[in-house]
Backbone:
């Protein structure tokens, strides 16, 4: 028999999935129907969840509706805040595990980056023994339009969102292939979306090449990118191999971010 805790988690997950799917109104009847549960029992469970601040009621205002708008169920903001805090922690811990695995497989320098404004920032890194890297990239911002993981981090954003990110950005040339402006960046981003990973070929600096895979959190949103970076002459011939490695470890990191223990311990 399913435990009451398990039933409660099923309700929260169903509520989260409806929110992610774009449903603007969710009632106890909707959830009972989806989960094949008795509505009265489910309603009592939801009342307890609201008391514990796992779920909340908020006004739903359909187009053209007047006063007395019905109430719709939603996950409580505290639950999101806790989940986001846990995601940030796991990005650094399980992310480091993923980077170690990537370095072992590729023999190249690997990084984990996030998007902050119109720049990318490295939050974790791992370099192979004998690396000639001077200093650390952790905490150092770089323009997202030409950074090693900028395209991967923006791969799920629509063109209007991308244009808004770069609305006040000057596209300064950093390498021979640096995008010249938003339209040029969007053309390259279209190829990234189609492939599922980004290739940055001498856009950040001459002779530098990288492959990056997006990492999505429990909401399905891109929150980070795993990247392999090195000399073009060495990495370009290995593009497909490096991309497969980055995508595989990105998938394991995503599973870890969604709460499955040990998910980033090793490749599938």
Residues:
């Amino acid at each position: 028999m399913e435990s009451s805790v398990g039933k409660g988690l099923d309700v929260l997950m169903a509520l989260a999935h409806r929110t992610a799917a774009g449903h603007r109104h969710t009632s106890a009847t909707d959830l009972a129907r989806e989960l094949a549960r008795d509505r009265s029992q489910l309603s009592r469970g939801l009342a307890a969840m609201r008391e514990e601040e796992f779920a909340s009621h908020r006004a739903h205002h359909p187009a053209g509706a007047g006063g007395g708008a019905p109430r719709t169920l939603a996950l409580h903001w505290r639950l999101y805040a806790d989940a986001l805090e846990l995601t940030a922690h796991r990005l650094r811990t399980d992310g480091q595990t993923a980077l170690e695995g990537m370095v072992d497989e590729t023999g190249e320098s690997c990084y984990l980056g996030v998007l902050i404004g119109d720049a990318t920032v490295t939050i974790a890194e791992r370099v192979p023994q004998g690396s000639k890297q001077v200093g650390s990239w952790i905490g150092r911002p770089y323009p997202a339009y030409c950074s090693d993981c900028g395209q991967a981090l923006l791969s799920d954003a629509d063109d209007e969102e991308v244009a808004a990110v770069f609305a006040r950005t000057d596209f300064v040339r950093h390498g021979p292939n640096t995008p010249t402006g938003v339209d040029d960046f969007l053309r390259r981003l279209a190829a990234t979306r189609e492939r599922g990973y980004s290739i940055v070929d001498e856009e950040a600096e001459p002779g530098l090449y990288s492959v990056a895979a997006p990492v999505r959190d429990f909401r399905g949103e891109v929150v980070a990118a795993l990247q392999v970076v090195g000399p073009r002459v060495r990495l370009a011939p290995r593009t497909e191999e490096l991309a497969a490695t980055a995508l595989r470890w990105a998938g394991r990191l995503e599973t870890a971010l969604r709460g499955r223990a040990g998910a980033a311990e090793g490749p599938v």
